[in-house]
Amino acid sequence: MKVSVSLALTTILGLAAAAPQRGGSREQQRADRKALQDLAGTDVDPNLPNGTRLLDNGQGQCVAVSGKAVCSDASGATLLNIHPVMQKVR
């Protein structure tokens, strides 16, 4: 059962990442960036091998590392998923 769930998740995410798009409208760029920020730091299947690509879009990518999603923007800077309340404090 675990294998089939992992395979299904990997397949779905792989299809989503299969055709990354570059550029696009400002609205699309914001949506792509938000998707990266939302995924950053979240728990993912711990059975996924390190380096498994979870998301790849025109603004960056996320990979699995030790059961967590690690995301970076297009420049290579690591993104952190900070709680919205803490974002306002900054």
UniProtKB/TrEMBL annotation:
Superkingdom of the organism of origin: Eukaryota
Region Disordered, annotated ranges: 19-53
Record protein name field: Uncharacterized protein
Biased composition (Basic and acidic residues): 24-36
Range of residues in the leader sequence: 1-18
Key words of the record: Signal
Source organism (scientific name): Colletotrichum gloeosporioides (strain Cg-14) (Anthracnose fungus)
